[in-house]
């Protein structure tokens, strides 16, 4: 049951950072905003955008128009974004597997 709790906590933290919480409450019932599918679409868009920025920085550096520090920063940001999305995905899969194991 520990996996389900970890997944719920990971989802809660991600959801709270993406949407406003009404009345400052930290309860799931207080979260309003976009559906989960739209939340995932936004996360994937951010990941794609970060990867695109990193590619542009690498191309600029290869052409001599960008500093190496800018390239490293863009690549690190893209990597952190991708790792976050992968971690959330893993927790969602674990939570789904836990739900599927529950007796009816």
UniProtKB/TrEMBL annotation:
It comes from the Bacteria. Keywords: Bacterial flagellum, Cell projection, Cilium, Flagellum. It is found in: Bacterial flagellum basal body. It holds the Pfam family FliE. Belongs to the FliE family. This is Flagellar hook-basal body complex protein FliE. It comes from Hirschia litorea. The gene is fliE.
